[in-house]
Amino acid sequence: MLYVRQLTYGPMKNFIHLVGAEGAPEVAVVDPAWDMPSLLKEVEREGKRLSAIVLTHSHEDHVNGVPEVLKVCDVPVYAQRAEVAWNPRLQDFAGALKAVSPGDTVKVGPLALTFIHTPGHTPGSQCLHCGGAIFSGDTLFVDHCGRCDFPGSDVVQMFHSLHTVLGALSDATKVYPGHDYGAVPVSTLDRERKVNPYLLRKNLKDFTDYRMRPRS
């Protein structure tokens, strides 16, 4: 069974996730940012130990805690190869950095994490698929999706990532997003396919017009 601890830190309501197999001591931390002393205390309180850092993408609000974690934990940092090529900021973690390709897996104890490349928000945005769940970063939120007007963003790639790449996953898949922006903290693809306005727009033009329209 999947072990998940969902924590909320920072002014942008970031979700930081501890992920592992239920009953196993090892956990990965997904997108460590903001309050690392509290995160590390939570790991200790739960009787776990960090074995990996996994990045869904490299925006500062998702990676600003990595250096602090690396000071106390000698663990690899996994990022999508396209993200490593795009953002030189990731070279700050060069000694620990491990570039992964779409479909690669890494073990966290007995749990296998699979990396799904979902560009659109950034060139190397990725979701993590394991135990019937995805950790979707800024690709898919509850009731929303990631912005496509930042440097490196691409609305056509976002449409493909949401409707084709994630579209291949089952309705029962749980969704753990990168920010607490929706009506509930955890959703399912079934729910999002029924209510998320970005998933309800099934053709590229409608999606692009809606995603790129000016917002106050």
Question: What report would you give on this structure?
Answer:
The protein is of the alpha/beta class and 216 residues long. It has one domain (2-212): Ribonuclease Z/Hydroxyacylglutathione hydrolase-like (Metallo-beta-lactamase, Chain A). It is built from eight helices and 14 strands. It has helices at 36-45, 60-63, 66-72, 81-86, 155-165, 189-195, 197-200, 204-212, and strands at 2-9, 14-21, 26-30, 49-54, 77-80, 97-100, 105-108, 111-117, 126-130, 133-137, 140-141, 144-145, 174-177, 187-188. The model has no long low-confidence stretch (mean pLDDT 96).
Quick summary:
The protein is an alpha/beta fold. The protein has helices at residues 36-45, 60-63, 66-72, 81-86, 155-165, 189-195, 197-200, 204-212, and strands at 2-9, 14-21, 26-30, 49-54, 77-80, 97-100, 105-108, 111-117, 126-130, 133-137, 140-141, 144-145, 174-177, 187-188.
